[in-house]
Structure formats: C-alpha cells, structure tokens
Design goal:
By secondary structure, the protein is an alpha+beta fold. The protein contains 21 helices and 19 strands. About 45% of the residues lie in helices and about 20% in strands. Helix 1 crosses helix 3, helix 8 crosses helix 17 and helix 14 runs antiparallel to helix 15.
Length: about 625
C-alpha cells in the first residue's frame, strides 16, 4: 500500500513513513527468521500476539506487479524479478510487525481520530474544491485492492510506526564543528590569473614519420582493435507465430461469448449522493429536518452543512457502494437512515438507476478473437518450448528444429556486443536486443543455450563461431593514426609552451604576456570552488580553462604560486591570486543550514537502522517460508 503513494503524495506523512521504512531496510535486509513447519499455512508472519495473513502478501504483490507492468510495459515480470519483489515485500512486512510490537510495548499508538483527520487532510483524496471526497477515497482503495477497514488499519499502523521512529530520530543533531569544517571545505573559492594555450592553432614542428605512426599505433592499440564478433544462430518462438489471431474460428468466438455472457453484461448501476457527518446524532438531526419531497441538497441547506457529494453512476457491486449495504437498493428519492463507516456517519440518496445492459456480440468479437489467440498461444508456447528442447536433444540443427516446431530461425553471420556487424549496421534480432545479445555473448561456442524466456515467447541461441578482438592492420587505419598523432603532438607542444611561459613570466603581467604572444589568451578564473562551481551567479566559468587536474593543483597552492595543467584542448598556466574563505552570505547564505540538515538526516538514518535492528532482535518474528515458496511456484 505504501509503495503506491510514493509518486502521488511526496509531501505527505505517507511518503515520509515510506522513506523511513526504506531507510531502515538498508540496515536490515533479508528474511532469515525461524521457519516453523507447523505454522498455519494461511499465516505468513507470526509473533506472540500478531499474525499477518498470507493474503496480505498476495495483495501487495499484485499491486507491485501491476505497477511494474505499467512502468515496464511487460505482461508479467520475469521469475527472478518476482522473487525479488516478494522478498522485498516480506522484508518490509517483517519490519512493520517488529516496529508495531515495539510501539505497543512502549505504549505508542495513533488514535483513530488522528488517523481520520490525516486521511481527510490528504490531497490524494480531495475533490476539485480541495475538500475530502469519499468518491476519490474509495476509488483509490478499489484501484489498490484495499478495503476501507484494511486501509485505515494500515494507516494507523504506519502512523504509529512514524510516531515511534520520529521519537528515536528526534535527538539527532549535527555537530557544529563538523558543519563548519564541511562548509569551509565546500564553499572556499579561489581566484587565479590564467593563460590558455589552445592546441588547435598549433602546428607540429615536423610531419609524422613512419616510426611516429608505428609508435602511436602501438601505444593506442586498443583504439585500433576490432571488437569480438560472434556468429550466432537462434530459434525464436513467438505466440502470434504459433497461434495467429485469424486461426480462431467464428464458432469458437461465439461459444466463448455465449458461455461467458456475464463478462459482457453491464450490471445495474446506481447514482448515489451522500452527506457525511462526524456523529450519528448529527446525521439523525439533519435527517429529522427533512420535509416530504426533500432530497439531500435540501437537507444540507436546512442543516447548514456542506452540499452532498455525488458519487456518480456505479455498479451495484462496486467497492465504493459496498460500505452502504442494502441502503443502495432504496427507491430513488428516498433518504437512508444514518449509516456508519470508519470515516463517520452517512446519509445517502439514490438519484437514479441505470438498468442492466448487454454488450452486443459484434462489438466485442475482435477483442474475444485476440484474447482466445493469446490464451492458446500461451499454452502453445509452453508445449512448443518443450518440443524444441526435444528436437535439439535429438541432434537436429537449430534450423531444422525451428521448422519442426513452427519457430523462426535466425542466422547472424557476425555481431559485436552492441549489436553491430563489422560494417557498423545494426543486426535484426526479432526479440529484445539486449537479452538476445546477453545470451549470445554469455554462451559457450557450439553449445545450445537452454530455452530462455523473453516477453511474448522463448528463444534458444547457439554461437557457431567467435572472432576474438583483433588489431586492425596498421595500413587500413593509417589516416586515423595520423590524426591521433597530430592531436597528441599539438597537446604536447601546448604543454611545452605553457611550461616555458610560466618560467619566463614569473611575477610579470599575464595580460601583457598574452598581448606579446598571440598563441596564448588571458582570462581570470574564479571565484571557483574545488568542485569547479561558481558561488556568484553573475560569473560564468570558462570551461575551456578548467580541468580536474588544474583544480586539484590550484587548491593545493599558496597565493602567488604558479601551476600548469592540461585541459580538454590545450594547456593552462594559472597563478593563484586570492583565496576567498567560505562565507555564509549571498548565494552561500543557506549553505550551512543545508549541510547541517544533510548531516542530521544521515545521523537519523543511522539511529533508525540501529533501532530497527534492535527491535527485530528484541521482537523476533516467525516467517512461514512455505507461503513464499508456494506463491512463487504458482507465479512461475
């Protein structure tokens, strides 16, 4: 449940609780608890006075799986990903149980009034006017397979844990001495006079000789080496290949429609309006003001409460209406007696009824055809993958095996790890390129891989040949070598000019030196931090004059020292002009507070991790591993 709200309520207590629990999970990972063989198979986690049922793991896994499908666009996560999801969810549930038991021992709890107030303040459940909307509330619960009572219990548990962990972390403070040192280090800036010697405008003193070309080639051999190439064969099994949609007969489609007619029956819908009150007495008093013919709008006016909320047209079995019980079956125009829920007391009115209807066969025929083909393809893929293994096990080639089972045979004469052939053209893999290439470059030569799962099907690869990384003949890459030699020579020449200029200028004027030697240009660098940033918004750093080497040397220098260092396309001479201590003013005014907050948060995380480890040691839980194994077995 918590995971669902991350992207929607980042500023809410739910998000803060989630972050606390996730921080704790880094300190206490795993599910290594005692496994009791005789534990009730419907119980996942158990302590002396708390039990968590297996259905809760199923529900959370369904929600997480759906979210993963939506984000990745896949039908189902791979078994390995599902296993990670289950383990993460169980780990989180363990932590929740241990913290709740600790909270109970310490007498910490969130009252239902506090929980209700928090839910009503939550923007996720607000209508267009910004007020709490039960319609939005129930929709969110339905989307996440939650009941109203279950959700409120979860929120109460989360708020209780937050109250407990907040008290643990409240004492964390950032030592001022540490903050000062960090601020001094981070925000100190330096100013230097610089001369840039760009290499682009320089000319090598001599043309490249054969020896120069050979040495450059040998010193940079990796740059002139062709990557490893592999000859790959594969068999790909895809559902639409095995069961095309047009293979589904009209009779089968009609039979499916007739047998599952309930699927295409739009159930009776009722349009419900409601008023919400804090107490039964308030609801009854408002209803007592009703005159013949009055609806909820009139009652609201007489009781001087907010207008009723229209819940819209909803099926009679909808989760939003479930809490109202039989009252939804009232005739239109009647007002219910007060109805209790965890959020208060309701008066409801049936504004209208939409009779049951049936979707015509012609309207859903193509949808059914596709669904039947997909279902048959799912079964066919499993059977065909077994047949494919049998065909290969019998000694048949991949091409013959593909023909025998109706799969696609793929032959790739040569590909590198990035999926390019020797001419630089992207190869065609039919299925997910990354997974295909990973299998191809992880396989041994002349040995068929096992059947591997991919979205919508399966595949097998076989590497029939491997060409190891091979240096390209020097004559075929001579132009590239010559360019590299020229660039390196120009950079070296720029370095010589910079070193000589630094010695010649001494304490003289850098701007005058630039006027005298047009190969150099003058510029002031800074104020700049050791991380290459400016603390002055009006100053734009000249990136051509900065490099990690230069910054490292500049921040080790004293005022008046001269340093030289290579930059991207040249060399820089820098004379340190001024050291500007960190000051909490201007753009840096808020920096100490930010650093203090970061240090305090890190200390809080450490405290919370230690507290949760202690809670799990003090209040151990029993995890029924069989529930986890059974769930993964069914899902796989």
């Amino acid at each position: 449940m918590i995971q669902f709200f991350i992207d929607r309520i980042k500023n809410s207590i739910f998000f803060k609780i989630f972050m606390v629990l996730m921080v704790l999970s880094f300190g206490i990972w795993g599910i290594g608890d005692v496994i009791t063989p005789t534990l009730d198979p419907t119980i996942l986690i158990k302590t002396d006075n708390v039990e968590v049922r297996a259905e809760e793991l199923q529900r959370r896994l369904d929600v997480e799986t759906r979210r993963l499908r939506e984000s990745l666009g896949q039908s189902l996560p791979a078994p390995s990903i599902r296993s990670v999801l289950v383990n993460n969810i169980v780990g989180q549930m363990k932590q929740e149980v241990s913290l709740n038991v600790a909270a109970a021992e310490f007498g910490v709890t969130a009252s239902l009034n506090l929980v209700r107030a928090q839910i009503e303040r939550e923007g996720l459940f607000a209508d267009e006017s910004g007020k709490f909307s039960q319609l939005a509330f129930m929709r969110v619960l339905a989307d996440n397979q939650l009941t109203e009572q279950g959700f409120i219990a979860d929120v109460q548990s989360d708020m209780t844990q937050q109250l407990l962990t907040r008290s643990v972390a409240a004492g964390a403070k950032a030592p001022q001495a540490m903050v000062n040192q960090l601020f001094t280090f981070r925000d100190e800036t330096r100013i230097a006079d610089t001369l840039l010697v760009p290499s682009d405008g320089l000319v090598p003193p001599n043309p490249a000789t054969d020896d120069d070309i050979k040495k450059t080639y040998e010193d940079n051999i990796s740059s002139f080496t062709a990557p490893e190439y592999r000859n790959v064969e594969a068999v790909v099994l895809l559902g639409p290949d095995l069961v095309p949609a047009d293979s589904i007969s009209e009779d089968a489609i009609r039979a499916f429609y007739d047998e599952g007619s309930n699927r295409y029956r739009i159930k009776e819908q009722r349009r419900i309006s409601q008023l919400l009150f804090e107490t039964k007495e308030a609801a009854a008093a408002a209803r007592a003001l009703m005159a013949p013919g009055d609806g909820l709008m009139a009652i609201a006016g007489k009781a001087k409460v907010d207008p009723p909320v229209d819940l819209g047209e909803r099926p009679v079995d909808d989760a939003v209406l479930a809490g109202f019980g039989e009252a939804i079956n009232m005739p239109t125009g009647q007002i219910s007696e007060p109805i209790e829920s965890a959020l208060g007391w309701h008066l409801i009115e049936v504004l209208g009824v939409v009779p049951e209807a049936v979707t015509p066969y012609e309207q859903v025929r193509d949808e059914i055809r596709g669904s039947l083909a997909q279902d048959k393809a799912f079964d066919a893929l499993a059977d065909t993958s077994v047949r494919l293994e049998d065909e290969i096990g019998s000694g048949n080639s991949l091409e013959d095996a593909a023909k025998a089972v109706g799969g696609r045979f793929v032959s790739i004469p040569a590909t590198d790890r990035s999926g390019l052939d020797p001419s630089g053209v992207t190869i065609e893999t039919i299925i997910e390129r990354e997974k295909f290439l990973s299998a191809a470059f992880g396989a041994a030569q002349n040995i068929e891989s096992p059947v591997l799962e991919v979205e919508g099907g399966y595949f097998i690869v076989k590497v029939t040949g491997i060409t190891p990384p091979t240096p390209k003949p020097i004559e075929t890459v001579r132009p590239e070598i010559a360019k590299l030699w020229e660039r390196q020579t120009k950079l070296a020449e720029a370095g010589k000019i910079a070193e000589k200029a630094a010695a010649d200028i001494g304490s003289g004027s850098y701007s005058a030196a630039a006027e005298a030697d047009k190969r150099m240009s003058y510029g002031q660098l800074g104020p700049i931090t050791r991380f290459g940033e400016s603390r002055n918004l009006s100053y734009i750093i000249d990136s051509k004059r900065v490099s990690p080497d230069l910054l490292e040397r500049l921040f080790m220098a004293n005022v008046g020292d001269v340093v030289t260092a290579p930059v991207l396309n040249g060399h820089v001479i820098a004379r340190l002009k001024e050291i500007v201590p960190a000051r909490a003013e201007g753009e840096s005014a808020a920096a100490p507070m930010q650093i203090s907050g970061s240090v305090r948060m890190a200390m809080q995380q450490d405290l919370l991790a230690q507290f949760t480890r202690a809670a799990e040691d003090r209040y151990p839980v029993t995890v029924n591993q069989q529930v986890i194994d059974d769930l993964l077995a069914v899902r796989n």
